[in-house]
Amino acid sequence: MRLKKKSAPGGRKQATGGVPDRETVLRFIAEHPSRASKRDIAKAFSVRGHDRIELKALLKDLENEGLLERRRKTLVRPGALPPVTVLDITSRDDDGDLIGRPAEWPDNGTPPPAVLIRPVRKGKAKTVAAGIGDRVLARIFQSDSDTGPAHSARVMKVLDKQRGAQLGVFRATPGGGGRMDPIDRRDKEIIIDEDDTGKAQDGDLVEVERSRSNRYGMARGKVLNVIGSVASEKAISMIAIHAHGIPHIFPAGALREAETARAAPMAKREDWRELPLVTIDPFDAKDHDDAVFAEPDENPANKGGVIAYVAIADVSHYVRPASDLDREALKRGNSVYFPDRVVPMLPERISNELCSLKEGVDRPALAVRMVFSAEGRKISHTFHRVMMKSLVKLNYRQAQAAIDGAPDDKTGPIMDEVLRPLWDAYAVLKRGRDRRQPLDLDIPERKLLLKDDGTVDKVVVPDRLDAHRLIEEFMIQANVAAAETLEKKRQPLIYRVHDTPSLAKQETLRDFLKTLNIPLAKGGHLRANSFNGVLAKAKDKPYEVMVSEMVLRSQSQANYSPDNLGHFGLNLMKYAHFTSPIRRYADLVVHRALIGSLGLGEGGITEEEEHALEEIAAEISTFERRAMAAERETVDRLVAHHLADRIGDEFDGRISGVTKAGLFVSLQQFGADGFIPVSTLGLDYYIYDETHQALVGEKTSLGYRLGDRVEIRLAEAVPLAGALRFEMLSEGRKLPTATRSFHKAKRGASRQNGARKRKRRGY
Q1: E strand or H helix at 328, and its extent?
Q2: Of 408, 403, 397, 401, which Cα lies nearest the Cα of 419?
Q3: Strands 219-229 and 190-192
Q4: What does the pLDDT read at residue 20?
Q5: Low pLDDT (below 50) residues in the chain
């Protein structure tokens, strides 16, 4: 395609020859969202030789102007959806066509985009594969319409038939009937007539289907299902389970397969039962899917080197492709962890019994033996299907205490044979990690401890021990070995990928860091250690926490993909989840791929699975985000319930988020956030300064900035919604000169815009 010379905005002229103009490039990317890398564009327009340099410059210009975003190796228009994603069918448009929205969408203040569902044609009959309330896996296309949704989709698979019911609490009214208080504050109250209450009692958590609505009155509905009393133990997590549609009851077929399963035989397995593998887990762990051991390498050519062993429960022996257990595991995607319960991916007969690497019990495993040099470089690795017997079950504190000089009856006898060699190996692996320089964000994780009645007792921050880091590094290396082996065998697999931060997020962070005189490398040169340099410059400064949070927000979300896109945060080129098949479906797929490609026996990946990897990756990525949202909302509801009787109390907090609408304030002792509406901050008019993450008073130039310590009063707590509202007690502070300058420029620009509008209107 030969195009005429055309000037681009900004004065830069495009080369003649094979380089397309800006509009053509943008249109091509919009129409081909799944194949729009620089190489794809060059091939599509026959761009060769020196013209490739011009094309690269053009694409860079479009990125810098915010007209394109780079997602891994592909260029997309801002706001574009991935080529395969999970949608919820929510409504119909004026023409009667179905409209869907992404099942999980980042909480960034923007609503999920509408997607037009294309009807499916079977022969001459026009049929629709899904209906309102269904959750579907769909392939996304750029829409040709100038007026409708920007995306359309073809349904590939209906994942879940839903009834479109609302979740809420039934409140009985005198004389019969009642109303439903919705869990989601965006929903509205529903009147329930006496004949439609079912068996609901006052205070029950219920699912209600709208039956009819009056234009001038409240909507009416019917109770479909009584979940249980909202005052009962574990009710809070049940709200999240039902609100997010998380499967929590195993079907009879899956339970039957689990109950009839028998222990794996020794046939075709290597005997590793004499190898002193140990499990190191949290003290309250009920299943143990990984065991480790290490020893010095006796090879004279590898002086100071070590051999590390990682054995992982062989779930693939019990959960075969296309079985009832497999279908239910894929439907769940992963185990979901709440403060009061676990919703497991597999029945307890499998996860807590047959696949749990119990102390002193023969268990089947898929294991990797890795050899490292003294500098922490992996020299070689091999995979084995084995029978093992865990020597001892330890928890993190127990193992750490032994290394620190306080062994107990369990750890004392294995100090020299097991624990010290493990820590020596970790020291070697740590040298490799330090050289690799992965992203080193040390943000403490808070854990809720509950009373017997299911309410909050206290919030703790567990210590981060070397025992944790040891197991983490052993697992990372095993995951890398799995990806490398499968790539070498040219075996399709599901990778764990983490993309480079988007250009827009990079620029937001870069502008913010400029206010603190901290530089950040430009996009093309950005690496994980670039962020580590930023964190190091903020260390022990008043703004250390603020910088850590901004760096965290700039990161892309990790997910699963059949394409190898690398892992930015870990600074690894090849990475796949292999080490937790009891609780993650992605790991089970990797196990099957290893078994099939290495000829390790039955239970390998099937041809049907290989063809469906793109769909599987999209599904489990969505289910992972679903689990994270449910876990977070449950913590918010528990804390709001805990604080509901402390209205009016004063607390010390820290500003954890700044938006045009107001401030988010974190209560460190509870691990919870609440909101202060901008309208309640005072008599001044506050202007949002995104660059400095601040709200600045127009008249006083006093304001509040991300990371500020403030005193607040609890004004409202809504336990069912997990919402807290605060009142600000601290006065704003004088912000840095740059922030006030922005504020004055913003005010001046606003006045100029107002004057221009008045002039156009003839005022």
Answers
A1: helix 324-332
A2: 403
A3: parallel
A4: 82
A5: 1-17, 124-128, 738, 749, 752-753, 755-763
Q: Burial of 533 by CB count in 10 Å (0-12 exposed, 13-18 middle, 19+ buried)?
A: middle
The Cα 485–Cα 497 span in angstroms is: 17
Q: What is the DSSP string of 447-488?
A: EEEE-TTSSEEEEE-----HHHHHHHHHHHHHHHHHHHHHHH
- CB-based burial, 469-498: b 16+ in 10 Å, e otherwise: ebbebbbbbbbbbbbbbbeeeebbbbbbbb
CA distances in angstroms from 261 to 348, 352, 560, listed in the order given: 12, 13, 30
* Cβ proximity of 292 and 310 under 8 Å: yes
Beta pairing partners, 394:
280
Handedness of CA 438, 439, 444, 448 (dihedral sign): negative
**CA-based nearest residue to 663, from 644, 649, 650, 682:** 682
Ramachandran angles phi, psi of 16, nearest 5°: -75, 170
Residue among 570, 599, 372, 575 at smallest CA distance from 487: 575
The token pair that represents 140 in the structure block: 């996304």
Residue 362, beta-bridge partner list:
389
Q: Cα 632 to chain center, whole Å?
A: 11
- Residue 758, pLDDT score: 45
Q: What DSSP letter does each residue of 73-84 carry, written as one string?
A: TEEE-TTPPPSE
Give the number of C-alpha atoms closer than 13 A to the C-alpha of residue 425, restricted to the C-beta side.
29
CA 198 to chain centre: 38
pLDDT in tens, 514-564: 888 999 887 666 889 999 999 999 998 888 888 998 999 899 889 999 999
Cα angle 638, 642, 647 (rounded to 5 degrees) comes to 130
Q: Buried (b) or exposed (e) across 582-608, using 16+ Cβ within 10 A?
A: bbbbbbbbbbbbbbbbbebeebbbeee
Q: Are the C-beta atoms of residues 157 and 615 closer than 8 Å to each other?
A: yes
- E strands in 613-705: 650-659, 662-667, 672-677, 686-689, 694-697, 702-705
State the number of CA atoms in the 13 A half-sphere of 472 facing the CB.
12
